[in-house]
Amino acid sequence: MQYYVYILASRKNGTMYIGVTSNLVKRMYEHKEGLLEGFTKKYKVKDLVYYEQANDVNEAIIREKQLKKWNRQWKINLIEKENPGWLDLFDGLL
């Protein structure tokens, strides 16, 4: 099974959220439609700006925790290395 660590953003350099899931398409749909109560719904954090795959759930969780500890500029650099325009990558998943 594949697992995904992902970063959502409200806009370029905006509010960010980091999460982990085994079904990225389903989870993104839930975020975009406001089906999940909490941070992303409250702050309208809906754009998938970065994600990476892992083959093991523990590996994905460790990576998620690592990214959450990073300072903001490191996260921005990671996003801009792979997605310099901060495009919403959700449509590319479908």
Question: Could you characterize the architecture of this molecule?
Answer:
The protein is of the alpha+beta class and 94 residues long. The chain has one domain (3-91): GIY-YIG endonuclease, CATH 3.40.1440. Helix content is 44%, strand content 22%. It is built from 5 helices and 3 strands; from the N terminus they run ββααβααα. A 3-stranded antiparallel sheet has the order 2-1-3, sandwiched between helices. A hairpin with a 6-residue loop joins strand 1 and strand 2. The longest helix is centred in the C-terminal third of the chain and has 13 residues, at 57-69. The protein is globular. The relative contact order is 0.24.
Short description:
This protein is α+β, with helices and mostly antiparallel strands and 94 residues long. 44% of the residues lie in helices and 22% in strands.
